[in-house]
Write a structure and sequence with these properties.
294 residues, six-stranded parallel β-sheet, 39% helix, 16% strand, globular, three-stranded parallel β-sheet, binds NADP nicotinamide-adenine-dinucleotide phosphate, 9 helices, alpha/beta
């Protein structure tokens, strides 16, 4: 059995970050400081802490300034809003990102409206989501943008092709469905979710299959059409079996057996994850540029 070729998101992300270096250097020259991303972290979620640290490291590596702003788990919505408004008003900040998930007292839908739409490097503000839906995006959400870049880099034909996406979240599945079906990509998109019937049969129609359900190893060989391109967005830390002393390992939404059916497959880690960060840096550089141009 031939194994799927792994799509190397780490290498592509490095290349894109290298390409950003010229823009970063120019912006730094022109305005005396590097593009700046402010990341807001609420609470102590260990996965979020890792993501925030990775984002700030990536900023530093690419010559951007990354600042982290931490609020306690018990903080009020008003405290978070005040912090976001301070960052919105700060001329030294180009991009503002609020790390998800948020504690239950804070409504993530409201939070999206608090970030200045011109600093909204996550692309989740209703104005930016609306622009994306209308085919004129300002900031494309980072994970869907990263998926598209991977498909482009591996020259995956999209026009007229069947793309199936599992997951309809406003961060991943929904915007990716809009992008893939837009003129230019021209795929025929099916968007699946937890109420979809006959998921395996529907997925097996996909020449491109994107798994963004947040369910470890959900996608098995039966979900995958022979030769399909499979993008695995999920990230999970799996513990060893009961009683096992095996260390935690990372897994995606896609079961390893899929490698025997797919033609191209993104690994976890090293696939969509690093691309998401590269797109965040790109959006931050673009936010800096946009503020200059306004
Ligand atoms: P989410 O908000 O929980 O959304 C999950 C979506 O999947 C929902 O639409 C849900 O349906 C659907 N779903 C859940 N179980 C399903 C099932 N058994 N069959 C079919 N559909 C199902 O998650 P998210 O924020 O989009 O993230 C998805 C995954 O991607 C997570 O593992 C997350 O950690 C990962 N992620 C990775 C990156 C990266 O950089 N690599 C970035 C963001 C997220 P309903 O709408 O019906 O509930």
């Amino acid at each position: 059995v031939t194994e799927a070729v792994r799509m190397d998101g780490s290498a592509l992300a490095r290349r894109i970050q290298g390409e950003l270096a010229d823009d970063v250097a120019r912006l730094k020259r022109e305005r005396g400081r590097a593009p700046t991303l402010a990341v807001v972290l609420v609470g102590e979620d260990p996965a979020s802490q890792i993501y925030v640290r990775n984002k700030s490291r990536a900023c530093a590596a690419a010559g951007l300034i990354g600042t982290t702003h931490h609020l306690e788990t018990a903080c009020s919505p008003q405290q978070l809003r005040a912090l976001i408004e301070r960052l919105n008003a700060d001329p030294a900040v180009d991009g503002v990102l609020v790390q998800l998930p948020l504690p239950p007292q804070i409504d993530p839908v409201a939070v999206r409206t608090w970030v200045d739409p011109y600093k909204d490097v996550d692309g989740l503000h209703p104005e930016n989501a609306g622009l994306l839906a209308q085919g004129a995006p300002r900031f494309v959400p980072c994970t869907p943008a990263g998926c598209l870049e991977l498909l482009r880099a591996y020259e995956v034909p999209l026009q007229g092709r069947r793309a199936v996406i599992i997951g309809r979240s406003p961060i991943v599945g929904r915007p990716l469905s809009i992008l893939l079906s837009a003129p230019g990509c021209d795929a025929t998109v099916t968007l699946c979710h937890s109420r979809s019937r006959e998921l395996a049969e529907v997925c097996a129609q996909g020449e491109i299959l994107v798994a963004a359900a947040g369910v470890p190893l959900l996608v098995r060989a039966e979900h995958v059409r022979e030769g399909a391109v499979v993008i695995d967005v999920g990230i999970h830390r799996l513990k060893g079996d009961n009683g096992s002393t095996a260390p935690e390992r990372l897994a995606g939404d896609v079961h390893p057996e899929v490698a025997a059916r797919a033609s191209l497959l993104t690994p976890v880690p090293g696939g969509v994850g690093p691309m998401t960060i590269a797109m965040l840096l790109r959006n931050t550089v673009q936010a800096c540029q946009l503020r200059e141009d306004r």
